[in-house]
Amino acid sequence: MKQTPLTNRRLSFYSLKLRPFRTACLILVVTILAFTLFGGSVLTASLENGMNSMIQRLGADLMVVPEGYKADMEEVLLKGDPCHFYFSPSIAQQVAQIEGVAQVTAQFFLTSLSESCCSAQVQLIGFEPETDFVIQPWIARTYGSVVENGVLIAGSDIVLESDHTLRLFNCSYPVAAQLEKTATGLDSSVFMNMDTMKSLFASAREVGINFLAADEPGGSVSSVLVKVKKGHDPETVASLIRNRIPQVDVIVSKSMITGIADNLGSLVDYIQMLAILLWAIAVLVLTAVFSVTINERKKEFAVLRILGATRKRLVSLVLTESLILSAMGGVAGTAAAGVLVLPFSAYIGERLQLPYLQPNTGVVLGILALSLLLSSAVGPLASIYAAARISRTETYLTMREGE
Question: Is 0.85 surpassed by the pTM of this model?
Answer without folding.
Answer: no
